[in-house]
């Protein structure tokens, strides 16, 4: 089953679309458009943010070297070095029912590992997407396909799961960063 397809800036109430949702999987996937033969490694990561828009702590920056938050409510599946094969290349599980009350949103990011030294950007990536899947039954609730050209950008804020009163929602963001993962991390208060 395919979920609701979102455009950039669009959002969906996960609580209304999947009333029994307690845990979700943010699946990211991509294909390479062009390659120089060099390895091309995209990495998914998540930032667990408070109401001030900053990470709760450095331990709330979830990526291949820090696979879970201290309370285990957000967990990374592990690093896929090539993006080969069908389906999600990397995923992040968010147990929304276990997120502490101070969590306002979980931002999901994809970045290109060593993009500058390899001369790579999102302009060389095609069919990039993020999808929200109900972890309990595997059904896709929502999907955002990145369509715009991001020729100079090395990291992308794909979307965010956020709390709105008593509801959990997902927003398709699609904001590129030429400053890579470091630039996004700095913007959200991660101390590198």
Automatic annotation (TrEMBL):
Protein origin, superkingdom: Bacteria
Coiled-coil parts of chain: none
Pfam entry (one): TerD
Domain spans labelled TerD: 3-188
InterPro entries reported in the protein's UniProt record: Stress/Tellurium_Resist (IPR051324), TerD (IPR003325)
PANTHER family, sorted: CAMP-BINDING PROTEIN 1-RELATED, GENERAL STRESS PROTEIN 16U
Similarity annotation: Belongs to the CAPAB/TerDEXZ family.
Protein's name in the database: TerD family protein
Native source species: Nakamurella sp. A5-74
Taxon lineage: Bacteria, Bacillati, Actinomycetota, Actinomycetes, Nakamurellales
């Amino acid at each position: 089953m395919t979920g609701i397809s979102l455009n950039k800036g669009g959002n969906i109430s996960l609580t209304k679309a999947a009333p029994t949702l307690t845990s979700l999987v943010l699946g990211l996937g991509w294909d390479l458009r062009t390659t120089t033969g060099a390895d091309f490694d995209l990495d998914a990561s998540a930032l667990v943010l408070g109401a001030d828009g900053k990470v709760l702590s450095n331990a709330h920056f979830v990526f291949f070297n820090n696979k879970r938050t201290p309370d285990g409510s957000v967990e990374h599946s592990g690093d896929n070095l090539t993006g080969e094969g069908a389906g999600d290349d990397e995923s992040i599980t968010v147990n929304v029912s276990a997120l502490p009350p101070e969590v306002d949103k979980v931002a999901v990011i994809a970045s290109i590992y060593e993009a500058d030294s390899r001369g790579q950007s999102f302009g060389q990536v095609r069919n990039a997407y993020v999808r929200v899947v109900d972890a309990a039954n595997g059904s896709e609730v929502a999907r955002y396909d990145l369509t715009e050209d991001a020729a100079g950008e090395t990291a992308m804020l794909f979307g965010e799961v956020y709390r709105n009163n008593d509801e959990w929602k997902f927003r398709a963001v699609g904001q590129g960063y030429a400053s890579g993962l470091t630039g996004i991390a700095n913007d959200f208060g991660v101390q590198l």
